[in-house]
From TrEMBL:
UniProt xrefs under InterPro entries: Asp/Glu/hydantoin_racemase, Asp/Glu_race, Asp/Glu_racemase_AS_1, Asp/Glu_racemase_AS_2, Glu_race
Keyword tags: Cell shape, Cell wall biogenesis/degradation, Isomerase, Peptidoglycan synthesis
Listed name of the protein: Glutamate racemase
Gene (UniProt): murI
Metabolic or biological pathway: Cell wall biogenesis; peptidoglycan biosynthesis
Sequence similarity: Belongs to the aspartate/glutamate racemases family.
E.C. numbers: 5.1.1.3
Job of this protein: Provides the (R)-glutamate required for cell wall biosynthesis.
Domain of life: Bacteria
Organism: Magnetospirillum molischianum DSM 120
Active-site positions on this chain: C82 (proton donor/acceptor), C196 (proton donor/acceptor)
GO molecular function, a single term: glutamate racemase activity
Keyword Amino-acid biosynthesis included in the entry's annotation: no
UniProt xrefs under NCBIfam families: glut_race
Length: 279
């Protein structure tokens, strides 16, 4: 039984975002691009990553802790910038914070795939937890009946991204190991969904492996679109507001800042990262 927590929302509050690490910054970057006036409050749960190999019960527990933390700091909407948590924890989070707009990345990725795929032959690269949940298969089937969806776990991609190792021979070898047989065989595959927010960081290598006939789908922009819609009824930052980014990590804040600044030069400087515990 989940106890409910009331949330007071106002347009001047930040948007809360969380992931297990740097991956969710792919979503934060798309939100900043689309809504530069918004303040973003981002937490990377480095102390507990990876989420993708954990049981659903554990991921729900971690996700509720992260959401609790952000709501206590004060947010007007929550973006679950983690597919693994979006796959299993959206309902528990929404049940705990009635009235708080909660946006997950799986719905956004599935919507992108349904649009991008020409023949409905879709491969989803994700974490073990996301694949085990069947969330992508269900979300794509709701939008595109008859689509053929294969979800395949690629857990080492998370470690590579957290290491700042996003291209080159090691990334190519790991990508071939996970996806080569699928992409070679399924000549008809027309869409590869990057079903973990860490994976867009490896997009150049994944795109080369997939080839020009396979569309890569990243959930970040579609998520920013869903957030814009959720804020459109009186919650968007007012004209003239100055946007910003506050970063928090549950461990190793300096490492988080270093990797984030290597991976996200376009974010215009990574601010110092606060350390916080979720217990
Ligand atoms: N970036 C997350 C996801 O989208 C989690 C990766 C992990 O911690 O395993 O699934």
């Amino acid at each position: 039984m989940i106890s409910q927590v009331p949330v007071a929302k106002t347009a001047s509050l930040p948007v809360g975002i969380f992931d297990s690490g740097v991956g969710g910054l792919t979503v934060a970057a798309a939100i900043r691009q689309r809504m530069p006036r918004e303040q973003l409050l981002y937490i990377g749960d480095l102390a507990r990553q990876p989420y993708g190999t954990k049981s659903p019960q554990t991921v729900v527990r971690y996700a509720l802790k992260a959401a609790d933390f952000l709501v206590r700091r004060g947010i007007k909407a929550l973006v679950v910038a983690c597919n693994t948590a979006s796959a299993v924890a959206l309902e528990p989070i929404a049940a705990r914070f009635p009235g708080l707009p909660v946006i997950g990345v799986v719905e956004a990725g599935a919507a992108g795939a349904a649009l991008a795929s020409s023949h409905g032959r879709i491969v989803v690269a994700a974490t073990e937890g996301t694949c085990r949940s069947g969330a992508y298969e269900r979300a794509i089937a709701r939008r595109r009946a008859g689509a053929h969806v294969i979800c395949t776990p690629c857990p080492l991609f998370v470690a590579l991204a957290e290491e700042g190792l996003t291209d080159g021979p090691i990334v190519e070898a790991v990508a071939r190991h996970y996806l080569g047989p699928l992409l070679d065989h399924a000549a008809a595959t027309d869409c590869l969904v990057l079903g973990c927010t860490h994976f867009p960081l490896l997009a150049p290598a994944l795109g080369r492996l997939a080839g020009p006939d396979v569309r890569l789908v990243d959930c970040a922009e579609a998520t920013a679109g869903l957030l814009a819609e959720a804020l459109s009824s009186g919650l968007a930052a007012p004209a003239g507001a100055v946007g910003g980014l506050t970063l928090i990590a549950t461990d190793a804040p300096d490492r988080f800042a270093r990797i984030a600044s290597v991976l996200f030069p376009s974010m215009g400087g990574i601010p110092p990262v606060e350390l916080a515990d979720l217990f």
